[in-house]
Amino acid sequence: MSCLRSPSTLRAVAALLGLLSLGASCGRNEGTGHTIEPDTDRPPASKTKTPTKSSTKVRPQGARVAELRGIDLGELSSAERRVAIDIANDQLSPCGQPISVARCLQSTECRACPRAARYIVRLVKDGYERQEIEVLVGVRFAPDQELRVDVGSSPVRGPEMASITIVEFSDFECPHCGRAAPVLHRVLRTMEGRARLVFKHYPLEMHDRAVPAARASIAAGRQGKFWEMHDLLFENQTTLEQADIERFAQQLQLDMTRFRSDMQSRATQQQIDQDLDQGRRLEVDSTPTLIVNGRRYLEPVEDLERYLREELEGR
To answer: Does the predicted TM-score (pTM) go above 0.70?
Structure first.
């Protein structure tokens, strides 16, 4: 689940997927709707999160095929195989051709088609419903679902040249962001330099101490201690009053005069506002929202490492 804003698009899809629940998220209007997403602050929701915008449904051209050439279906039951093949025949190739994923496997050398087919097979095996699979595949592979995220001067954890960039829109008071933080840290370690995390501030109005906490992290960052403060804030989400924040700053041996000044500066608030503006443009509706290589990540945060390893296939 996640902390939520009210979704602005694809309400029909959200309603369809409302019976499935991936986790939790925090949002602008708690209880107004749900979407497919990692553990985030929001009302009980679906196994997935709705895409940021509608993907135009175009039916693939050509006859249907009865196999997924080169794709291992050994872990699926007979019924699951039929479902996977059927979905792959209905999903448009991610390679820019008006044919299905299934037909693309037979007729092209495009690397994205095997990845899309394996993803469909994995989702069928994991027990996702057909509507969920269609949304997840579309968000991950459809050309009109790619998001342009400006990393700018945001804090980054991980090597600059990493193959995978995870952008997180987060709120320090969101409990689901707090639960996601150690998972993300662990994933970065296990990916051994192949992934990096970009942090974007997205404090929600429902959380009184989210903005002061965001200001504190930026102020600590001005003294080279953003991630240290980030970790302390998430580890102590129930104690984020000013006295607590100053205690964390002292624990990090920050220059307290400079820290207090930076916390209150206009430049600090502008940095938060820039992240909020970018999040709104991307239709971020809950926290944490994760975007992986320009694609909204909609599965449970616990499955992120598997998703990232799939991203590395064929690179």
So the answer is: yes
Asked whether residue 54 is assigned to any structural domain, the reply reads no
77: its two tokens: 């039951």
Task: Tell me, yes or no, whether 193 and 138 share the same domain.
Answer: no
Cis preceding-peptide flag for 288 (omega within 30 of 0): yes
Over residues 249-299, the pLDDT tens digits come to: 999 999 999 999 999 999 999 999 999 999 999 999 999 999 999 999 999
Most distant CA atoms of the chain, gap in Å: 71
E-only strand ranges, the chain: 2-4, 25-27, 156-157, 164-170, 195-201, 286-287, 289-292, 295-297
Burial zone of 12 (CB within 10 Å; 0-12 exposed, 13-18 middle, 19+ buried): exposed
Q: Which domain holds residue 82?
A: 78-145
- Name the strands in the sheet holding 195-201, side by side, starting at the edge strand that comes first in the sequence: 156-157, 195-201, 164-170, 289-292, 295-297
Return d(Cα 290, Cα 188) in angstroms, integer.
14
Tally of domains within the chain: 2
Residues 151 and 295 in one domain: yes
Whether 58 is in a domain gets the answer no
- Pick the closest to residue 208 from 178, 242, 253 (CA basis): 242
